[in-house]
Amino acid sequence: MSASKYFYAAITGPISLLKGLSVSLKYFLNPRRIVTEQYPENKATLKMHERFRGRVELIHNEQGLHGCTACGICEKSCSTASINVLATKNIAGKRVLGKYLYRLDSCTQCGFCVENCPFGCLRMAQDFEMSSTDRQVFNMILNKTEGQG
Predict the structure, then answer these.
(1) Please, are residues 59 and 114 in contact by the beta-carbon 8 Å criterion?
(2) Which CATH number belongs to the domain containing residue 116 in this structure?
(3) Does residue 48 form part of some domain?
C-alpha cells in the first residue's frame, strides 16, 4: 500500500465511523423515528411490503382455476431446479397443467420464475413464517385442480 493511500484511509476511516455513529445517536435521542417492527406483539397487524419475496404461488381465481398452460418457461428459468411442471392432456388432446411441483427447501426466492412467466400466473407470496422440522412440508403442489387451465 502506498503512503498516499494509507493516509487517505486513515483520514476517511474515522469520518465514515462518525457518520455511522451520528445515525445511531439520532435514533437514540429521538426514539419515535425508529422503524423497527415489534414482531411477535404486532403479528396480527403485520403486513409485508409489496416487494417482499416469499415462496412462489400459483395465482387462482375465485373458481379455483389458474391460467398456467404448462409451457415450462418458469421451470427452465429456475436456476436451482425447484420447479417441475408436469403437463398432461385433457379430453380434447390439448396440453394442460397436470401438477405444478415446487420445492421451497431448494428455492432461493430469486423471482426469475415470476418475471419470466408469459401469462402472469405466478407471484411471490407474502408468507414469512415458513420454518418447519419436517422436510416434506417444503414439497408443495401449487395447482388446486389437476388438468384445468
Answers:
(1) no
(2) 3.30.70.3270
(3) no
**What percentage of the chain carries pLDDT values higher than 70?**
94
DSSP label at residue 86:
E
3-state DSSP call for residue 87? strand
68 and 14 belong to one structural domain: no
Residue ranges making up the domain that contains 103: 56-141
Q: What is the DSSP letter of 31?
A: G
- Residues 104, 140: contact at Cβ < 8 Å? yes
pLDDT one-digit tens code per residue, 27-54: 888 877 666 777 778 878 887 888 889 8
Helix (H) or strand (E) holding 20: helix 3-29
Residue 60 counted as domain residue: yes
Q: Are 106 and 80 in contact (CB under 8 A)?
A: yes
* Secondary structure (H, E, C), 68-105: CCCCCHHHHHCCCCCEEEEEEECCCCCEEEEEEEEECC
Q: How far is CA 53 from CA 8, 17, 33, 73, 103, in A?
A: 40, 32, 26, 20, 15
pTM: 0.69
Would the pLDDT of 112 be above 90? yes
The mean pLDDT of 119-125, rounded to a whole number, is 93
- 12-34 average pLDDT score: 85
